[in-house]
Amino acid sequence: MPRYSSFEYYMTSQGDTFDLIAYDLYGNEYLASDIVELNPEYSGELLFDAEIELKVPVYEERSESERVAPWRRPI
Known about the structure:
It is built from three helices and two strands. With 75 residues, it is α+β, with helices and mostly antiparallel strands. The chain has a two-stranded antiparallel ribbon with strand order 1-2. The longest helix is centred in the first third of the chain and has 9 residues. The model has no long low-confidence stretch (mean pLDDT 89).
């Protein structure tokens, strides 16, 4: 799982969920747990109202060599 280096703010729309936000921002709903981790006060919310400001992770870009399996990297 990628780790985030910092966060930025995201304004919710009516009906947003943690997994929908993660999918919309990162293309991966499984990163929703990182959004929950940054917003523990909203961890019990299933559906958000509009105009709630949440912290969302900013992930570090991985270089091409970091995305390649170690045994396939050039020497």
